[in-house]
Design brief:
Number of helices of chain A: 12
Order of helices and strands of chain B: HEHEHEHEHEHEHEHEHEHEHHHEEEE
Distance between the termini of chain A: 46 Å
CATH topology of the largest domain in chain B: Rossmann fold
Helix content of chain A: over 70%
Structural class of chain A: mainly alpha
Strand order of the largest sheet of chain A: 1-2
Largest sheet of chain A: 2 strands, antiparallel
Radius of gyration of chain A: 19 Å
Oligomer: heterodimer
Strand order of the largest sheet of chain B: 7-6-8-9-10-13-14
Number of strands of chain A: 2
Number of strands of chain B: 14
Chain lengths: 299, 414
């Protein structure tokens, strides 16, 4: 039987990792809520963010790893905006016959393209950004590395900043209006194309920040985004499609469930193997009893 | 009449030029490796670089059978279905005369019957599953270690080291499950307490499971982190960060993924004192070929060849040698030549004593069929940050150990 100290340590780990999951999912849900497009390249934006931070910090030697995150966000903001203009705008201009299928294929295509491009440019070997700070924090039974704590803290700050931006600024309100009713928003003088572009750029930027935050913890490789991307889809549906608050709470919940599941399942040989399954069980239960997700609205 | 003579001359010209073209056609050898995700592409890519080095050398000395050699790459992506598809493509479309390579056992096993059905010789470079050669296919040879050989050597070390408890994190792949089955059986027979946590090879965070192992009292004597890909480095760092291993109480045994220099970039200080397996000869037993090829590889790629990379080089060169010995590219002749070969490569002198004329004796395991019997492996420990595998301290087997007699690993200082 495990003691309380052990459970507290596991819960703390789940909480920290959950904040990182949430940041990535928040970007995905923002894109969906405004553009009504599921971005299958979100994991690759995460990966590109990790690599950008790595190269910014190591190639431009002397740059603090925290600045690497800033650069990653800027690069992904630009990349996301460009991609939206070039490939997703035709959907909203009515230039595509089957928009849903087109959106799936074009984002999948981008995902494969980015993975293979980075593999050719950066090589097959993993890279890890220098630590944000060495050492760790020990509180009672819990020891967490400084990198993880800083990453989780920054993820929370970015998510809160996004929520404030959406609630308190004109652009944020305009994005919400477009997400609720594009036509009504356009009639009110909001340019929905501009909002699409901003939302996709910010969503990609948050994925990039998420990748840059994990670069000193898990290291980056060309396919590092595959698993987090799948997890983000679960979080988004769990929290409610399009709900930023839902993605935040969903992310933390999945982090906790995965961590405590791996800790408490009696059979140690399966506890870690089924790690992704714990989140999926919650996901299925939510779909059964609350199909709109924890904070989503009924259609 | 004149018109007929002209037609005859033209026909002869076309025939001769056709013959010349066919004579000049390169000898194509298929190379199957994981070059892109989700497979072990960090191993597949340097293996391919080594094959290209071999191609350059063979062609620089005039090719084989007077023809150029061409390596035709098939990217398996580490996915068995894709491995089967690319192997079939190499055999039926590219008309390769032989195939070498593979990193993942699952990929080799998925395509094995194609070599048999199309009667194409294949040299397995890195797959460890016993069945690769135990199935006894006439066309299949192996120069790598097998799961059983790996178990025999490593478990001997674990027993000699006096380990009484082992915590293992094992990836769920054909290789991982195969190794785990053999190891747990051996650990149980030796009376070693053991517990294995299986995990997906893409897992990023092992902390939950590692925290579980910290609850053992006394702590485990060894943590066996049997993960390939970047997870191999992550688990070292995470185990170190929570104080589990490597530590004065617990030895960390890592996979040969940690032969890559990136182990230092990702795991840093945490990788000091980890134990790693190298499938091949220790540096002091390297021959001229090893040193020469390694120097060339290092000059071009800024890293030395590890065991898997050497296997790729040797398997390709071995196929070329066999074709040259056979005097033609007919599969029967190549297989015959391989069965009789004695060729010195980077990892020793290759022979395949058990084959058509000399079946595997009853007292030998089935996997010895077309298996290079002298395949060796040794264990070493990194004792300083940034060391290369060659600079590590060899700890096993005893005849190569650089430790005082009776000592089997370098303990982490208190």
């Amino acid at each position: 039987m495990y003691g309380a100290d052990y459970l507290i340590a596991q819960a703390a780990n789940g909480l920290v990792v959950g904040c990182l999951y949430a940041l990535m999912a928040v970007g995905l849900t923002l894109i969906f809520s405004v553009l009504k497009v599921i971005n299958f390249a979100h994991g690759e934006f995460y990966m590109v963010g990790g690599y950008t931070a790595y190269y910014m910090v190591t190639v431009l030697g002397g740059l603090h790893p925290l600045l690497g995150i800033f650069f990653a966000m800027i690069v992904l903001l630009g990349l996301g905006s460009l991609f939206e203009v070039a490939f997703l705008r035709p959907i909203h201009l009515g230039a595509v016959n089957r928009p849903a299928e087109y959106a799936i294929l074009i984002t999948f295509g981008l995902s494969f393209f980015l993975q293979n491009l980075v593999l050719s440019l950066a090589g097959p070997f993993p890279h890890r950004s220098p630590s944000f700070m060495s050492g760790g924090l020990t509180v009672g039974p819990v020891t967490i590395s400084a990198d993880r704590l800083i990453a989780a803290g920054l993820a929370l700050v970015l998510m809160i900043a996004l929520m404030l931006f959406i609630r308190a600024t004109w652009t944020g309100k305009a994005m919400r209006a477009v997400s609720q009713d594009r036509d009504a928003a356009a009639v009110s003088g909001i340019n929905p194309f501009k909002m699409n572009n901003i939302a996709f750029g910010i969503g990609a930027s948050l994925a990039g920040a998420s990748g840059a935050l994990i670069a000193p913890i898990f290291a980056v490789v060309p396919d590092v985004g595959v698993l987090p991307s799948l997890r983000s889809f679960v979080i988004v549906v769990l929290g409610g499609m399009g709900s930023v608050k839902g993605a935040l709470i969903g992310g933390v919940a999945i982090g906790l469930v995965e961590s405590l599941g791996a800790a408490l399942i009696p059979d140690p040989s399966r506890a870690l193997a089924y790690r992704e399954l714990y989140g999926l069980v919650i996901f299925v239960l939510v779909l059964l009893f609350r199909p709109q997700g924890l904070f989503g609205e009924k259609q | 009449m004149q018109r007929n003579i002209l037609a005859l001359i033209m026909a002869l010209f076309v025939f001769c030029s056709g013959r010349a073209a066919s004579e000049e056609e390169p000898v194509r050898i298929g190379v199957v490796l994981p070059m892109s995700p989700p497979g072990a592409y960090a191993s597949g890519n340097p293996m391919w670089w080594a094959v290209q080095q071999a191609v350059d050398e063979v062609n620089a000395r005039g090719g084989i059978l007077g023809r150029e050699v061409e390596a035709v790459l098939g990217d398996t992506r580490g996915v068995p279905e894709e491995a089967r598809a690319v192997t079939e493509r190499l055999i039926t479309r590219d008309r390769v005369v032989g195939v070498v390579g593979n990193y993942h056992s699952s990929c080799a096993l998925a395509a094995l019957d194609l070599f048999r059905d199309h009667h194409v010789p294949y040299i397995a470079a890195e797959p460890w599953a016993d069945d690769v050669t135990a199935l006894g296919y006439e066309e299949v040879f192996r120069i790598s270690v097998t799961n059983s050989l790996y178990r025999d050597i490593t478990v001997d070390w674990m027993i000699s080291s006096g380990f009484e408890s082992i915590a293992a994190v094992q990836e769920i792949t054909d290789w991982g499950l195969g190794v785990n089955e053999k190891l747990t059986q051996a650990w149980n027979e030796a009376g070693i307490r053991n517990e294995t946590a299986f995990t997906d090879v893409k897992t990023e965070d092992f902390t939950g499971t590692l925290l579980r192992f910290t609850q053992w009292s006394p702590p485990p004597d060894m943590l066996f982190g049997s993960i390939t890909g970047p997870g191999a480095y992550r688990i070292i760092k995470q185990a170190y960060d929570i104080g589990l291993a490597p530590s004065p109480q617990t030895v960390f045994y890592a996979t040969n993924e940690c032969l890559h220099p990136e182990v230092w970039e990702v795991a840093g200080e945490a990788a000091r004192y980890i134990t790693v397996t190298q499938i091949g000869l220790p540096p002091f037993a390297h021959n001229m070929v090893t040193r020469q090829e390694n120097a060339r590889f290092e000059q071009e790629h800024d890293r030395t060849m590890n065991a898997t990379v050497m296997e790729a080089y040797d398997s390709f060169m071995l196929m070329c040698e066999a074709i040259e010995d056979a005097g033609c590219a007919h599969p029967d002749s190549i297989i015959r030549a391989l069965e009789n070969i004695e060729w010195k490569g980077m990892r020793g002198t290759y022979t395949f004593p058990y084959g058509t004329d000399n079946p595997v004796p009853e007292d030998q395991p089935d996997y010895m069929w077309h298996q290079w019997p002298d395949v060796t492996l040794y264990l070493f420990q990194y004792t300083e940050v940034g060391q290369s595998p060659e600079e590590g301290t060899v700890i096993w087997p005893p005849e190569w150990s650089q430790l005082p007699e009776g000592q089997y690993y370098v303990p982490v200082p208190e």
